[in-house]
């Protein structure tokens, strides 16, 4: 373990957090996907950052691009405890045309290339490249040690997925030693894992490199006019072909309850986002947010505890199989199978069933909402009914393929103007 700790002290995490996440529709109109709220009080990026910190990595850089203000503000408020005098850093690296006056970040690899001088200043031996938009708990120490022991040029974090579902991913073909022999982007016939014909290895977008090796590779890639300057499209296939690329199985480093399945979610659609949040209201959710040994760190607002008021028939403040965050006031409202973020205020005779309400939502009297996602700061008008008539809902709101209704304030304002 001491050696592992030394390895993490010689490593940094480079978090790629610049993508919009357009499949989340209006949820990313004002914020980048890693800044989207999740789980009652956290943001999506908190999982990658918490994994790095809990693993012992204290040097972190976050590359941002699309509508980054919400993300930057969150990191400044919630992740401002790193101390440079202890060799700890959290640097935010917005795309700022550092190479020339025309080039923003042109791809995931280019985001690192444009900040080579900053990574050099950290004096690290290893770089862990992370996507900032997935929900999971992982000990990067284990992956880093495996990388060093294997003498790999790159080690790629891989999910074990059913082979019939692997066509949605970049898939790794590996030999018996775990060495990657080919990388196929969304193949129609995914290669099976050795000894497991019904399973395949899918890339998580997590890479471990020796910095000296990656630095040289990035500089050569930058000079290639035919490159898209992307890890998955360009650099990884090149290493698989001409170097030593090893697969690291997420099952080996996932942090979870004993006996629980490995948990990893891409909450990249409205349906997936809603489902992953609602899953947290289960009796024993697969994602353990109550783990004191591997906490998910975040910015915590100073708010009072949640309050439930009124106790009359039809006007009782209660919540069943739900998560209710600090600052919420449940005033005569029945809440079931729902997740309420900070300072959601609901009023008498309203009901919420399978609802994800982001911070500062207000629900007025007699509103009846089910199977919905409500964006931050939305004011639900008195008597609004959502979730009973999909065709009526679709006139004003976005109804997903799975039947989840996404409600934003702009949608409500247009509805009010039309009625």
- The share of residues in helices is 10-25%
Architecture of the largest domain in CATH? Alpha-Beta Complex
> Main sheet?
9 strands, mixed
Terminal Cα span: 65 Å
Name the poorly predicted regions: none
Radius of gyration: 23 Å
Shape: globular
State the name of the first-level CATH class of the largest domain: Alpha Beta
| Number of beta strands | 29
Mean pLDDT: 94
The CATH superfamily of the largest domain turns out to be: Spore Coat Polysaccharide Biosynthesis Protein SpsA, Chain A
Percentage of β-strand residues: 25-35%
Structural class: alpha/beta
Q: Remind me, CATH topology of the largest domain?
A: Spore Coat Polysaccharide Biosynthesis Protein SpsA, Chain A
- Supply the number of structural domains: 2
Assembly type:
single chain
In short:
The chain is 25% helix and 28% strand. The chain has 419 residues and is of the alpha/beta class. Strands 1, 4, 5, 6, 8, 9, 10, 11 and 12 form a 9-stranded mixed sheet that branches. Strands 17, 18, 20, 21, 23, 25, 27, 28 and 29 form a 9-stranded mixed sheet that branches.
């Amino acid at each position: 373990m001491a050696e592992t700790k030394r390895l993490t002290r010689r490593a940094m995490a480079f978090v790629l957090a610049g993508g919009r996440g357009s499949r989340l529709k209006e949820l990313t109109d004002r914020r980048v996907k890693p800044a989207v709220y999740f789980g009652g009080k956290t943001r999506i990026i908190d999982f990658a950052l918490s994994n790095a910190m809990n693993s012992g990595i204290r040097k972190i850089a976050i590359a941002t691009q699309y509508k980054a203000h919400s993300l930057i503000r969150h990191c400044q408020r919630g992740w401002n405890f790193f101390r440079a005098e202890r060799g700890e850093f959290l640097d935010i690296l917005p795309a700022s045309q550092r190479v020339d006056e025309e080039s923003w970040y042109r791809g995931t690899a280019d985001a690192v290339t444009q900040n080579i001088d900053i990574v050099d200043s950290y004096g690290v031996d290893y770089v862990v490249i992370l996507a900032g938009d997935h929900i999971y708990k992982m000990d990067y120490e284990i992956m880093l040690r495996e990388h060093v022991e294997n003498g790999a040029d790159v080690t790629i974090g891989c999910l074990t997925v059913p082979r019939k579902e692997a066509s949605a991913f970049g898939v790794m073909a590996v030999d018996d030693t775990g060495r990657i022999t080919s990388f196929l982007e969304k193949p129609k016939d995914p290669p099976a894992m050795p000894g497991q014909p019904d399973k395949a290895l899918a890339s998580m977008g997590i890479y471990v490199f020796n910095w000296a090796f990656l630095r040289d590779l990035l500089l050569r890639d930058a000079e290639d006019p035919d490159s898209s300057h992307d890890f998955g499209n360009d650099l990884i296939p090149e290493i698989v072909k001409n170097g030593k690329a090893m697969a690291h199985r997420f099952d080996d480093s996932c942090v979870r309850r004993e006996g629980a399945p490995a948990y990893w979610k891409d909450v990249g659609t409205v349906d997936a986002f809603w489902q992953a949040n609602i899953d947290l209201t289960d009796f024993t959710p697969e994602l353990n947010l109550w783990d004191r040994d591997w906490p998910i760190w975040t910015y915590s607002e100073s708010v009072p505890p949640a309050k439930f008021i009124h106790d009359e028939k039809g006007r009782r403040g209660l919540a069943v199989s739900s998560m209710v965050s600090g600052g919420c006031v449940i005033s005569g409202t029945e809440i079931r199978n729902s997740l309420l973020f900070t300072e959601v205020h609901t009023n008498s005779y309203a009901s919420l069933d399978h609802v994800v309400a982001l911070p500062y939502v207000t629900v007025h009297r007699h509103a009846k909402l089910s199977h919905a996602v409500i964006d931050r700061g939305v004011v639900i008008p008195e008597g609004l009914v959502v979730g009973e008539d999909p065709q009526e809902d679709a006139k004003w709101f976005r109804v997903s393929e799975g039947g989840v209704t996404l409600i934003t304030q702009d949608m409500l304002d247009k509805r009010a103007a039309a009625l």
